[in-house]
Write a structure and sequence with these properties.
The longest helix has 20 residues. The protein is 33% helix and 18% strand. Helix 2 packs antiparallel against helix 6 and helix 4 packs across helix 5. By secondary structure, the protein is an alpha/beta fold.
Length: 212
């Protein structure tokens, strides 16, 4: 498959409309350009851009389809993952992307503008500094769940209207029992290998932790 080919996304998400397909197709060139200026993704890993970054982000969409009006906070978004791919997929939901590194938010701003995404706001700040309430907080392997939970536990809307109640949705890899020991009674883990056949996803999971 050509490196810049978004067909893997279209294969797993055949319901995309023309505009969404165009936006996903634009991602490669945008990130390739920014990656030369700011080393967001290693050169070796960039060869698998659509699989390991875009499709991985969209693994969350195999677990939950955000309804219109859902507010999602992406903590430690880096260059915009998982937030930007999810924002393309769910144009009627609101995404707030934050990162403590300013140059990464600069990339998010540029990509958001180039794609014409109206449902994304991005800020150079830490989770503790973020104002507002959200239905879900998402992340991609940011930090230990105990510390992460401490950062965001008071940032949730009181009412739920999605198929999952409000909470944390994290993309994780490997074994979870030790890290999530305090939450095993209420967390749910979804294996991405059940949705995507590529070897990369063999040990990858989406972890859902309700926050009431």
């Amino acid at each position: 498959m050509p490196l810049a080919d978004a067909s893997i996304i279209f294969h797993y998400f055949p319901e995309l409309n023309t505009r969404q397909k165009e936006q996903f197709e634009q991602l490669y060139a945008l990130y390739e350009d920014w990656n030369e200026k700011i080393n967001l993704i290693s050169r070796k890993d960039f060869q698998h851009f659509y699989e390991r970054h875009v499709l991985h982000s969209l693994g969350i969409a195999k677990v939950i389809q955000f309804k219109a009006g859902t507010k999602i906070l992406d903590v430690g978004t880096g260059g915009g993952f998982p937030g930007i791919p999810l924002a393309i997929l769910f144009p009627d939901s609101e995404f707030t992307l934050i990162d403590s590194i300013g140059k990464k938010i600069k990339v998010v701003d540029a990509v958001t503008l180039a794609l014409g995404l109206k449902n994304v706001a991005s800020f150079h700040q830490r989770a503790e500094e973020t104002k507002g309430k959200f239905h879900f907080v998402v992340s991609r392997g940011v930090t230990d769940i105990n510390e992460f939970h401490h950062w965001v536990k008071y940032k949730f809307e009181p009412t739920s209207f999605n198929t999952l109640v409000n909470g944390i949705i994290a993309l994780k890899g490997g074994e979870l029992d030790e890290e999530y020991a305090a939450y095993l009674h209420k967390m749910r883990a979804f294996n991405l290998k059940d949705y995507f056949k590529e070897e990369f996803f063999e040990t990858k999971k989406v972890v859902f932790l309700p926050v009431r």
